[in-house]
Amino acid sequence: MSRTLVYRTATLQGVKTPGIIQNGGYHFTHFDVYEDGRIADWNFEDFEHFIKDVQKGWVVTNIPDGEEISCFNLGSWKIDKGHWYYTPETYLEFIKSLVLELNPNWTNIYTYQERKVNGVTVGESGTGTLYKIDTVNVDHFFPTKIKGENRSLFYVSEGKYYLVQLLLFKDKTILIHGCGEEKVLDFERLRALIDEGIVCSTIPNGAKVIIENLGEFTIVEEFYSNEIEEIFVELEDDYRQLNGEKSLLQLCREALEAYQENPTDELKEALKIAYERIPEHMQMYLGDMDSKDGEYIDIIYGPEYWDQWNTDEVK
User: Fold this and answer.
1) Residue ranges of the domains in the chain?
2) End-to-end alpha carbon distance in the chain
3) Mean pLDDT over all residues of the chain?
């Protein structure tokens, strides 16, 4: 007898919370904590494995003075005068309390089992879909979820720099979490806050940084930071993707394919325009881990580009 195949997808509720991964350095991130006890901390197994991640120092609760904190797509800084709010034990208690908020009876807690396909261990992503509930078109029985993306930025208040989450949603509303009460903005207001220096990506040496519900420290030295204008371009790109449009990376890859099929001066110029629209720190993601954006540079700027870099290295 033939079998008719079906499948179902379960939705599990979760929340994001700030955390630190120690893996060749100290990396600030946000962990996704789910009602079934699973925590996405660059690993995604079960609650008992998360306890082990804390015990072995993969997840840490402080960064020693004189060490560097890095934040993906934002920057990296040496810190001093750190004051951290948790010990490993109290942080585990806090994470467990988040699970209990979502699942008060601690039921249906997930137990990890290694899965292999053709002898190869297969993992899964624990990154959740960020959303908010639609409060304009209200449906009390089946609330509509509006998808979003998040970015880390600084929000300046009373001379202190809060490392916040900026949440951008498909309807172009923006929320800021991590500096007290939730702030609700639109793109126009965000643009104004950037122009006023209240929302920023670079901070001066000696500035005090606060990570809400995690710790605070003073900046000693900046190693690098991405420009706020480039991050603003990324936010606009996020908005386009949330609404089903192609990203700047996709458009540039398509421009490369068009040029390769028909290498004219006009298509080369179109490729150059598409490439230079992409924020500089994102251009490396056009290719794979080895090639990065090398193929694009070869076509657009020619060998002179690499000669310039080789000359600088000799100097």
Assistant:
1) 14-111+127-231, 246-314
2) 75
3) 92
Q: In whole angstroms, what is the distance from residue 69 CA to residue 216 CA?
A: 12
- Which residues, 6+ apart, have CB-to-CB distance to 23 below 8 Å? 42, 58
Q: At 122, is the pLDDT very low, low, confident or very high (cuts 50, 70, 90)?
A: low
Kind of pairing between the strands at 199-200 and 145-157: antiparallel
User: 108: left (phi > 0), else alpha (psi -120 to 50), else beta?
Assistant: left
d(CA 163, CA 159): 13
CA separation for the pair 59, 53 (Å, rounded) = 6
Handedness of CA 231, 235, 236, 241 (dihedral sign): positive
310 against 12, higher pLDDT: 12
**Which of the four pLDDT bands, split at 50, 70 and 90, describes residue 281?**
confident
What tokens does 148 get? Answer: 């979003």
Report yes or no on whether pTM surpasses 0.85. yes
Residue 314 has pLDDT above 50, yes or no: no
Task: Quote the tokens at residue 86.
Answer: 């948790």
SS (H, E, C) the chain: CCCCCCCCCCCCCEEEEEEEEECCCEEEEEEEEECCCCEECCCCCCHHHHHHHHHCCCEECCCCCCCEEEECCCEEEEEEEEEECCCHHHHHHHHHHHHHHHCCCCCCCCCCCCCEECCEECCCCCCCCCEEECCCCCCCCCCCEEEEEEEEEEEEECCEEEEEEEEEECCCCEEEECCCCCEEECHHHHHHHHHCCCEECCCCCCCEEEECCCEEEEEEEEEEECCHHHHHHHHHHHHHHHCCCCCHHHHHHHHHHHHHHCCCHHHHHHHHHHHHHCCHHHHHHHCCCCCCCHHHHHHHHCCHHHHHHHHHHHC
Segment 28-39, tens digit of pLDDT = 999 999 999 999
> CB-side exposure of 298: number of CA atoms within 13 Å?
9
Say yes or no to pLDDT of 17 above 70.
yes
